[in-house]
Model the fold of this input.
Amino acid sequence: MENQSVGILVGSLRRDSFSKKVALYLSGLLEEQLNVTFLDIASLTMYNEDLDNESDTPQAWLDFRREVEAVDAVLFVTPEYNRSMPPVLKNALDIASRPVSANTWSGKPAAIVSVSPGQLGGFGANHHLRQSASVVNLYMMPQPEAYIGDIANSVDMYGVSGKRTQDFLQKFAGAFVDWINRFSK
Done:
């Protein structure tokens, strides 16, 4: 059987973001069992339904929709902005869910890792993203939930360095692979 594919979306555009470091670490754990692709959301302009027609749809939206359609599962790694997900991540959800009749997220297993320099580990972003994901028919992994607080003490210039965080992410990655395999065709 061919490996399932997972698309990773990072909710931070910052070059040295904590989310990006966690996503890279997770990709290394997942690529032993899955085909891993990072889905770039930096070039997506804000969704505007007036542009979503046969002649005006931005090429970046069309390309992104094809990329989402091509993966079997989705992993979101995100910081928290004002107790919510970053707008760039919400925009990506909106773009790939339109038109509603061609929602490219629909039916895919998914999971979220949220990170924060604070103690709550991005709890608000995680749950806000879960709420939006349910509307676009993503099947969100219920357990283990992944809120990584005090992230600045778990990463360094090379990536994820905290042993507790590494151990947790390894367990999370294993659970995510199991979750994806439940939906195998």
Observations:
- The chain has a mean pLDDT of 96.
